[in-house]
Each structure stands twice: as structure tokens, then as C-alpha cells.
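User: ok so my PI wants both of these folded by tonight, can you help

Assistant: No problem, let's get them done. Here's the first:
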Amino acid sequence: MSDSKSGKTVTNIEAPAPTEAVKTGRNLAGNKPTTAMGRFKHNLQFVRGRGALEITLVFVAILAVFSIMSAIDPSGFPFLDANNLSGVLTQSIPLMAILAIGVGILMIAGEFDLSLGFALTFNAVVFVMFTKSVGPEIGIIAGLLSGVMIGLVNGAIVVFTKIPSFIATLGMGFFWGGASIFINGTNAAQLPPSLSADGSWFEFLFAHDFGWFRSQFVWLILIGIIAYLFLQRHKLGNHIYAVGGNPAAAQAISISPTRVKLMAFGIEGLLVGFASILFVARIPSVQPGGSATQDFTLFAVAAAVVGGTSLLGGRGTILGMIIGAALIEVIKNGLILGNAPGFYLQLFVGVTIVIAAIFNRFMEGKAS
């Protein structure tokens, strides 16, 4: 088109015709499913994107195989026996799953805790000592506060000194291990027999046998729901994902990585403190300096990784952490029932961690 006054050619830019989205005012929020089936598919894709669906399918397949083997030979492989389900699985899975939730939340924030096993022993010793001195109610509070204190101390060292968390918590782990011997000595800390006896309120709350399951299983359900609502449905949980995924970007939108990471360490410490009480309720004594709790560190990390939690932070689900812990404990139980040599368990855990890490890396590559 030419301008008659200046004689220059002027190009007019015409606005595009309104699209359907503009006409109807459709936006991202408008794409959210409105039907029950649509919401189910949306949630399924959300879970699948974080690896929880895949590990759930593997878990169900292994459960089916073990159940068939038990049905064919109930005496040779008593997987479905009530004593096995109640006495082993519904005690071991909740303890491992609660630890995996704590470790998983911390990993989503981009940090690790290699002091977990030592902290578990220290918290248990504190719980037993306060229980003997001033009663179990104060003992429970002391055990929980001990866990939070350890988590916050570890977190403060990491966030204020900028030391990598796996180095800081590894060193602090040895400190907490020595501290448990310092406050209790080398003898085992024994829970008063009256508390662990059948019929006591403590036994009913933390270790009661309901036939096919134990009290610990109920605690896992409650903690799992609370952790899910916090991590995946609350803004503070979104802050943890944001800091773990990209701390600089999170800080740019006024999220403090220091405060969020300290919170994640504190939550992890609280869950380790609670797991300490469940541990003593199951085995009414704890040995300072012993190796009984050391394996929990690696197994909890393995459970979180197997459940889809990213080693690089920013990704993971509560369901995946629980299923990952259940998968490891069920396979451990299967190996024991099958009279497999002890080194098979270490072999299995090592291979599982590597395969899960490779799989998570593959999923992250697809996502990017």
C-alpha cells in the first residue's frame, strides 16, 4: 500500500482473526478435566510421569508371583501366612516406608542424609532414657524432638556452610553414633517390659497385632496421607519441588532455598524420630554403636529412588516412595522365605539402585 502524501510504500500489519480459544476465553485452567473419568486419566498421567505407576505395576506383579507360589506350596513358601503378613511385612514395610518418605522429601529438595541410621539409634536411645526417667509420654516427645534437632543441625551445616550434604551428613552420622554411646554407654537401652507387654496402651498404639496387620500399618496410612497432602497439594510442598528442581529460579520468585531446605531437613528428622519409636516398639531395645540400624540409610535411599524420586532433586511422589519401600521389603521377605543366601539381598539392593537410577535418568531425559 502507498502513502499518497509522502510517496513511500507502507506495509500494514493486520491483526489475525480471533482464534476459537480467544473467542471462547479458553485458557490452561479451562483444559482441566471436568468429568470423573477425565480427572482419573489426568491423575494417572501425573503419577506415571513420576515413575510411581511403573513401580506399582512391578510391585503388583511380584505380589502375584509370590501369592501363587505360596498357594501352591504353603508350607515351603508361607508368604500368605498370617504370621508372615502380620509379624513381618506389616511391621517392616511401615518402618522402611516412613524413612523413605523422609529421605524422599529431602531428595526432592536436592539434598541427602547419610546420617539416618546413626540418627535412628540416637533418637531411640533418647526415647528409652526419657521413658525410664519421666514416662513414655515425655519419652515420645523427646524422641521426636531429638529427630527434629538432628535434622535441623544437619540442615544448618549444609545450607550455611555450602558443604555437600552427603559429606556433611556422613560426618555428622559418625558424631551421632558416638553421641549415642556417650549418653547411654555401650549397653543396650531397654524399654521397660510393662510398656512392651500385650495390653499396654503403648503396645496397642505402636505394635499391636490385629491378626493380619499391625499398628504400624495404620500409622503408615496416616503419615502417607498427611505427607501427600503436604508435598503434593500444599504450596510449601510446591516450594520443595521448586527449590530441588531449580534453586535460582525458585529464588527469583521469592522462594528462599535456605528456609525450604531447612524445613525439608526438619521434616525428615521428625519422620526419623517417629520411626525410632516404631523401631523400639517392635524390638524393645536398641544397641548404641550396633549395626542393626545402619542398613536403614541405604535401604531408605534405595526405596525412594526405586519409587521414582530423582537423585537430582525436583521429582518424586509419596506413593512412589511407599511402593518402593514395600517392593524392597517384599523381595527381602521372599528371599528369606526361599532360604536364599544372605549375600543375595545385598546383590539385589545394589542392582536395584543402579537400575532405578538409570530408569529415572531416562525418564528425566524424556521429560526435558
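One down. Here's the second:
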Amino acid sequence: MRQHTPVALLAALVSATAFAQDINVYSTTLAQSWKQDTPNFDKATLLPVTEFLGIDATKLGTDALSLHLYGWGRTDLKDQSSIGGKNSGDLTYGYLQYSFDRANAEIKAGRIVVNQGIGNEMVDGVSMRTDLRGGFTISAFGGQPVIFKNLSSLPQLQPAYQRDFIVGTRLGWRMAKLGEIGVSYLQDGTTAAKDLPIPEPVDYTRRQVGADITLAPAAFLDFSGRTVFDVAKHPDALPGQDRSNIAEHDYKATGKILDNLSVTGTYLQRNFYAYYAGTTLPSLFNQNEKGKFSSNGLSVSWSPLSILNLVADVRTTKRETYGNTTRAGLDGRLTFAAQHLVLGGGYHKVNAFKVQLVDSLTPAYSVSHSEIRGWAMYEKGNFSASLDAIRLHYGGAYGDPNLNHKAIESEIVGSAGYQIAKNFKLSGDLSFADTPLYKKQVMGLLRADFRFGFAGKGGK
């Protein structure tokens, strides 16, 4: 949650809906219930209710101006279900948008979600984009980054103090019948931690330059990816320390060999020294981690029959601070269109026999396991239903401190839904789980989706 809720921003945006000619509201309400029985913790009965609400208001005095709001709120009717209190909520986005009638140009102002080259951010500020001559495009954004509350023991104020302003831009060039290339720049925070009046040991700021590419020169080939360079001024590296200025390589290529056979390869490399800096969720990503991560993947998709699709895949990962992992297996899908039924299943083997650096008493342990999964989906008319079951079998249960000496983990989830009216759907999930952490657990979820719209003054 943002540390300082932009109440004034939200109030101003909501009041703007009074000028709209067309308003669409969509709502999803989730009511969950389960009993929690975690070893070494008190038993609890949990009943959280979460409401997601979105509003799209168009034609605010002119056809070019619109308003978009989306947020959520949660309250616990029984015991507290998450860290931070029994009540919580946030504004995910809320902005005014002006769309020009030429060059796909637009301006957004408010709380916006930015996806421009290497900039994938939540910002309280302004963004804009437009097409240029010769196939070029340009976009830019700037404002104050949205920073979520840190629920760990890490300092609460330093991320917001250092990340006082964020700005980014991307210049792209579309190549006819070939693809697109682009270069982008991002600066998050005006002063690096080492240059503050009182230098800080953890740097939450970023300065990055990126290049991205999307190529589809023929129907049988698709290639996309990006490279991000870390151009921030860091403290001098320690003797023997290997500090790359490559924050990320992320590439994917798919080749269609036959109509029913395709091959996909992926390559990923991340340098956490630069990649984790400036994240909006420091409670999930540890800025103190300086290691590297790399991953290679290959999958083959084959449809020998019109109703059958098979996918074989293998993925290897290497993380300096935790060790190596290989995951390989096969998934299958059967589609019976006339019966409105889809069946699927798969088996994977994960080899992670030496997870490193747990503590001084457990320097390494294995999380190798096998995974088997089966599922079914049925949909006809207004009714839909699904059933999904998964079972994990761990080979090193007595070495893994997180498994509480349990070698098997399993869960089954059943769902059903009915479209009661054109704008109202009711659905629910019921799950049974037997896990090392929560023992045997039954969870229920009831979901109500509601949409409505109306035309205001002057609307149709």
C-alpha cells in the first residue's frame, strides 16, 4: 500500500465522472473462508471479503477525454488474514486520458501504469505517446513512483526518500512487415545512495538504458527480447568482485516447423545488483542480494491429432546464491468440442538437490521433487465448471526445514459458475489441501462479478 494515500487525487478523479456521458462500472466481490492450522502458530478462522471496483467514464465534455479508475479494498470478518491489519485497500490506477484524433497520440495524468520499453512502473504523474513520420514512435513519462509498504524488517523510509522522482522515455521504429526496434532510458531517483548528505549502504535508485526488438519476418518465425544496461554510478567494486553492467538479457524465439509442430527457446540473464534496485515491492525483492541469475528453456509443441496437443519442455536455472535447478516434463491436452469438454494432465521432474546457504546448521538441502497434475474444464451455455488436482512428491523431505518431515503435498480445487444475467455472474471454488505448512486445509471462495453502464446527459 502507498505510504501516503493520494486522497485528493482520488476525490478529484471521482468528481470528474459527473461530466461523463457514458459510464461503465465493473465489480468483483470475493468472499473466502478457511481454517488455518500451522505448526507452532495459533489456530485461526479466516473470513476475508475483498471488493475490486473499476469505473470507465468517457466523453467528459469532449469525445477525446475519459476517466479510468480501478482499486480494491479488503476487510477480515474473523481473524486477521494478512500482515498489516484486518482492513486494507489501494488505488491500482486512476487517471484522466486525452486521445488526439491524429498519430495515435494520447496523454494520461493521475496514477498510471507505465509500460514503455524498460519502464514498467506505477507512477503518480503524467505519460504521453505519439507516432512520428517514417514509422517512428516516441513516448515518455514522469512523476513520483508509487511505493508499496515494506512488510519486512527492512527500513520503511529509505526507498521513498531515495526514489523522489522517476522519468523515462522510449524511441521506437516500426519496420514494415518485419517488426520493431526501440531504445529506452529510465532514471528512478535523483541522487544515488552513496551521494546523499548521509550516504546509505543500500541503493534504491536506478539509471538504466535498454534496447528491445520484435521480429516476425515470416509466418514461421517470431523473435522478441530486450537487453537492459545498468548505467548508474555505483561504489567501486571490491577486489575480485565481478560486477557486470548488464542488468538483464531476456529473449524468446519461436519457430513453426510444420503446421502441427513448433519449437520455442528462451534465454534469460539477470544481475540482481541492478535489477532489484528501485522495485515497488522491496518486501519481496531483496536489494541486498547482489548475485546473478540465468535461465535457458526449450519447449516443443506437437498436435498429432486435431483433438490432441502435447508439449515437452525443459528449463535450467542457475542462481548464484541458491544453486541450480532443472525442470523437465510433458503436458497433454484433449479437446472434445462437441461435448464442451477439455481434459489435460502432465508430469514434471524438478532436480534441485543442493539449495545453498540456509544457515550454519543446514548449509545445503534438496528440494528435488516430482509433480503430477490433472485437470478438466466444462462449459456449456451459462454454466461452467472445472476440476484441478496436483500432487508433489519430495525426495529430500527430511533435509528440507520447510517440509516438516512430509514427503507428499497435494491439493484439489473444484470450481463452478453460472451467468445469471448478461451483467451478473456468480461462481465459487472449493479446495482441499494437504501441505507441509498448513496440514489439512479446506478453503471456500464465493465470487460475484457485476457490470453495468449508463448514458448520462447527452448520451445515447
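The mean pLDDT is 86. Residues 64 and 81 are 43 Å apart (CA to CA). Good luck tonight!
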